[in-house]
Amino acid sequence: MSVLVNKDSKVIVQGFTGKEGTFHAEQMIEFGTNVVGGVTPGKGGQSHLDRPVFNTVEDAVKETGADVSIIFVPPAFAADGIMEAANAGIKVIVAITEGIPVADMIKVKDYISGMDVTLIGPNCPGVISAGQAKVGIMPGFVFKEGRIGIVSKSGTLTYEAADQIVKAGLGISTAIGIGGDPIIGTTTKEAVELLMNDPETDGIVMIGEIGGNLEAIAANWVKENGNKPVVGFIAGETAPKGRTMGHAGAIVGGAEDTAQAKKAIMRDCGIHVVDSPAEIGVKMAEVIG
């Protein structure tokens, strides 16, 4: 089992014929993802990577039955791409694009509220269900099948956690990179909840970073509703206050935004917090029994 994407997902690529779209679509196909086509306005009717190209998401959905879309559209047009996908009936939208203006994402959040759609990202590595489907830019070979879910704000730490989990003799059910922007589609808590409700996920790794309150909200939800062990890590221990670090959302605005404060909250909520990503796999193996 997995959440969000699996071997039956029919995936289209928005920005299919561009450099990034082409490279990562090839990687996704090689992984075994069911990529059924792509969208590049003005290139409809062409073929790319032996898949059809469509002018609009609506055309792609009509022809292929696509239910998942991954977006490699430049920042200025990415919000329109997300809304177009939602309007066409796509159920899971993965927005890889970094640098989408905050004002645009406010419009997107308002537009898709109430719709039957899950937005992952933007500014994220995507979603991968080991052995089934990769809808993102992560190195697929790191992710071996298993029963541990990963939720992470950081792309590279998603891969690192997966590597540590596999080295500890465990494997991955689904890893969700939620993205590091101030406004994202799926929060830490929502992603943790998906994995907590997945019958074939036995434990969850939750990776956060300085800035915002997503980890605190998730930790309190786990305290009230969790029935599986959660191992947590917060990046940015040495970040100077008031400086954005790596991600647009990674900026300490108040006392509870620091790594130390977040780790204290997580520990109080029963999460097994580690101080180094190198300890994630060992700790999970220990707490899962």
From TrEMBL:
Identify the SUPFAM superfamilies for this entry: NAD(P)-binding Rossmann-fold domains, Succinyl-CoA synthetase domains
MF GO annotations? nucleotide binding; succinate-CoA ligase (ADP-forming) activity; succinate-CoA ligase (GDP-forming) activity
Family designation: Belongs to the succinate/malate CoA ligase alpha subunit family.
Q: Matching InterPro entries, A to Z?
A: Cit_synth/succinyl-CoA_lig_AS, Citrt_syn/SCS-alpha_CS, CoA-bd, CoA_lig_alpha, NAD(P)-bd_dom_sf, SUCC_ACL_C, Succinyl-CoA_synth-like
Spell out the subunit comment: Heterotetramer of two alpha and two beta subunits.
Source organism of this protein record? Phaeocystidibacter luteus
| Active-site positions on this chain | H247
The entry's CoA-binding residues are T17, G18, K19, E20, K43, I96, T97, E98
Q: Which residues bind substrate?
A: Y159
Residues that span the membrane, as ranges: none
What this protein is called in its record is: Succinate--CoA ligase [ADP-forming] subunit alpha
Q: CoA-binding domain location, by residue?
A: 4-100
Q: Which UniProt keywords apply?
A: Ligase, Nucleotide-binding, Tricarboxylic acid cycle
EC number from the UniProt entry: 6.2.1.5
Of the GO CC terms on this record, one is: succinate-CoA ligase complex (ADP-forming)
The biological processes this protein is annotated with in GO are:
tricarboxylic acid cycle
Name of the gene this protein is made from = sucD
The pathway where this protein functions is: Carbohydrate metabolism; tricarboxylic acid cycle; succinate from succinyl-CoA (ligase route): step 1/1
Enumerate the catalysed reactions.
GTP + succinate + CoA = succinyl-CoA + GDP + phosphate; succinate + ATP + CoA = succinyl-CoA + ADP + phosphate
What is this protein for, i.e. what is its function? Succinyl-CoA synthetase functions in the citric acid cycle (TCA), coupling the hydrolysis of succinyl-CoA to the synthesis of either ATP or GTP and thus represents the only step of substrate-level phosphorylation in the TCA. The alpha subunit of the enzyme binds the substrates coenzyme A and phosphate, while succinate binding and nucleotide specificity is provided by the beta subunit.
